[in-house]
Design goal:
heterodimer, A: 296 residues, alpha/beta, Rossmann fold, 10 helices, 10 strands, disordered N terminus, B: 295 residues, mainly alpha, MetI-like fold, 12 helices, 0% strand, elongated
Chain lengths: 296, 295
């Protein structure tokens, strides 16, 4: 294991200094897939209105954390608490599932599979509204238009099937659908990674606006440091299932303490950047066995 | 997405227009698909109204007319017992077509429910149900039908029930893999995160997105069911004579074939072949189309 070569900036049970009431509180979260440890004793908090990024390479366990927080995967051990409610065990009953849905929502990476191919955006959003707030269909139609407005989709785009929409437009539908539940926390699991750069910028601006408008918190899962810098206040850096560094986004990215964070930062292409072979690395820690099989 | 769209852009415009034209239900099945649909619609009409439009009483025997060929308004002549052949073909369409229809509806219902339930639940439930279906695989449909005819009574009911059970594992297996593929897509996960009930997701989203492949599989199954039911009737375990049925007619026509009068077996066999070919051609086209659904 290369963990000894990767010094921890702060202990795993010492979450970053959060102010105010914690919206999401994760303690000692661990997930094993067979003998493979995908996530190992991870703890962090997100304050109401805060935004946290989890960065790390593929296989570092960041998506596994997202899936456990939304309840698509059951943790091996550890607790996940949102708004004071535990959600580390499967939901019992429809009412609890609905309540959990109204607390945390997720926007997935791939806008091509995250929408029902036979359902228009408006109908997908309406379905969520009917589940969470009810009301007459006229009320809901009004709210669908509002949400469309919020994410920048016009009526025609909302009524189109996903196959008639571009990747960026689909991702807007997915964001609107997630926001329809009026969640406190929105998990963005590589949500802009599949979009090209200009659309990525649009969607990032949109996410920043949405946060300003609604006060929703973000948990951003990303490998893209530029995206992380743009929309999050705090960051934790993960490597092979373990938190190797945590702190305010700007501090961590500008003055990385952990060797792994420095490596991540050095891997970002910049003008004059030239790819090097691993054998040429002089400053890198021993990461030769980095290609893990755990879900990224 | 692009995998699917690339081939259509390579097709010359004229063909593409043809492929995109047609009734909404049959769009993309081409000219052959539409012709098959017309044949099947005709067969279905005959199945429903055949007995009513039959020119003569299909069960009226007159032994002095046995094996007599075309005569006056008896366009296909008579069978071994002097019954009007055309009337028997028209009257026999009902059991010959509605029987397989019942088999298809029942086994598609069982198969779809099992496929979606196993794909959704996974784990031990999936293992147990899949193992049980594997055991059922070991019984050929005809053997099961023979057992059912002994246990219940020889007739269309027992035969249809046995075939429905025998076909269920095939359908369940094909649809389970389709359900698993659909289940792993993010939109299903998104609906789960929203807090929708599992059965609502299964019916409203998973099942609805599997509909093209369900229809295609059902259509192909109809052909098999028709041939198997005819075979069971031929063996004397399905529809009981003297009731008219294409399978029964192929069987009773045997004596005529030996004596040089093959019309009864030939006509009944031809009816079966035409319907089965039409169903299979249409089913194949529907199936091709369902795998090409644009995401």
């Amino acid at each position: 294991m290369g963990e000894s070569a990767v010094p921890l900036a702060s202990g795993p049970s010492d979450p970053s200094g959060s102010t105010g009431e914690a919206l999401l509180s994760v303690r000692g979260l661990t997930k094993h897939f067979g003998t493979n440890v995908a996530v190992d004793d991870v703890s962090f908090d997100i304050a109401r209105g805060g935004s946290l990024a989890i960065v790390g390479e593929s296989g570092s366990g960041k998506t596994t954390i997202a899936k456990m927080v939304v309840g698509l995967l059951a943790p091996t051990s550890g607790t996940i608490t949102t708004c004071g409610h535990d959600r580390s065990t499967p939901a019992r009953g429809a009412a609890e599932r609905r309540r959990r849905g109204a607390e945390v929502q997720i926007v997935f990476q791939d806008p091509y599979s995250s929408l029902d191919p036979r359902q228009s955006g408006a109908s997908a959003i309406d379905e969520v509204l009917a589940l969470h707030r009810g009301g007459s269909s006229a009320d809901r139609a009004l709210r669908v238009a509002e949400l469309g407005d919020l994410v920048g989709l016009d009526d025609r785009q909302l009524r189109a099937l996903p196959k008639a929409l571009s990747g960026g437009q689909r991702q807007r539908v997915a964001i609107a659908r997630a926001l329809a539940a009026e969640p406190q926390l929105l998990i963005l699991d590589e949500s802009v990674a599949a979009l090209d750069v200009s659309i990525q910028a649009q969607v990032l601006n949109l996410l920043a606006d949405v946060r300003a408008d609604t006060g929703v918190s973000y948990l951003l899962i990303s490998h893209d440091l530029a995206v992380v810098r743009q929309i999050t206040d705090d960051v934790i850096v993960m490597h092979r299932g373990v938190v190797v560094e945590r702190g305010a986004t700007r501090d961590v990215l500008d003055h990385p303490q952990a060797a792994y964070t420095r490596l991540l930062r050095a891997s970002v292409p910049t003008p004059g950047w030239r790819p090097r072979r691993r054998s040429e690395w002089t400053d890198a820690p021993d990461l030769s066995d980095v290609s893990d099989v755990s879900a990224g | 997405m692009s995998l699917v769209e690339l081939p259509t852009t390579a097709v010359p415009p004229a063909r593409r227009r043809l492929a995109g034209r047609g009734l909404p239900l049959l769009r993309g099945t081409g000219l052959v698909g539409h012709l098959c649909a017309i044949v099947l619609l005709g067969a279905l009409l005959v199945a429903v109204f055949g007995a009513a439009i039959a020119p003569h009483d299909p069960d009226l025997t007159n032994l002095s007319f046995a094996f007599v060929g075309r005569f006056q308004d008896h366009y296909l002549g008579f069978d071994s017992q002097g019954r009007d052949l055309l009337s028997r073909l028209l009257a026999g369409a009902r059991t010959s077509i509605l029987g397989p229809l019942v088999v298809v509806l029942l086994s598609m219902l069982f198969g779809t429910v099992l496929a979606i339930a196993t794909a959704w639940k996974g784990g031990r439930f999936d293992t147990i149900v899949s193992a049980a279906l594997d055991v059922l695989f070991a019984f050929p449909a005809i053997v099961l039908a023979i057992i059912a005819s002994v246990v219940i009574e020889p007739g269309l009911k027992a035969a249809s029930l046995a075939l429905s059970v025998a076909y269920t594992p095939y359908i369940a297996r094909v649809l389970r893999s389709a359900a698993l593929r659909e289940r792993s897509r993010d939109y299903i996960a998104a609906l789960e995160v929203q807090g929708l009930r599992a059965w609502v997701i299964c019916v409203r989203h998973l099942g609805r997105n599997m509909l093209p492949i369900i229809v295609a599989q059902g259509t192909i199954l109809f052909g098999y069911a028709m041939v198997d039911l005819a075979a069971i009737s031929f063996l004397g375990l399905g529809v009981q004579p003297p009731q008219a049925d294409w399978g029964v007619m192929v069987a009773t026509g045997q004596s005529g074939v030996l004596q040089g009068y093959p019309m009864e077996s030939l006509c009944a066999g031809l009816c079966i072949v035409v319907v089965v070919i039409a169903v299979n051609l249409l089913g194949e086209r529907l199936s091709d189309r369902s795998t090409l659904v644009t995401r």
